[in-house]
Amino acid sequence: MKELIWLGSSLDDLKSFPEEVKDEMGYALHCAQLGNTDSTAKPFKGYGSGVYEIVSNFNTDAYRAIYIVNLDDCLYVLHAFQKKSKSGIKTPKTDLNMIETRLKHLKMILKRGNL
Prior knowledge:
The chain has helices at 10-15, 19-33, 93-112; strands at 3-6, 41-43, 51-58, 61-68, 74-83.
């Protein structure tokens, strides 16, 4: 089973979600640790292979968690957030920036070999 590593505030952010969302995302992440892809997870386009988005809708709110599985032998959660996009299905720019920044930082640290 892959080790699960939370980057930045992703764990604290996920802990603030409703219980049903936490349960759904926790199960999806567990599946990913075992090498499987849960039905709530889909490839997150634009960030290369191995980057996935867990999609959870609760009441009228949308929640997301972004993770990557193909860097070393760990599963890294890059970002967890409540989607509040004003432009339909698009992920807000601030969240995209957070994901990109954490992914670049993670790759840099792994390249140096000191995570």
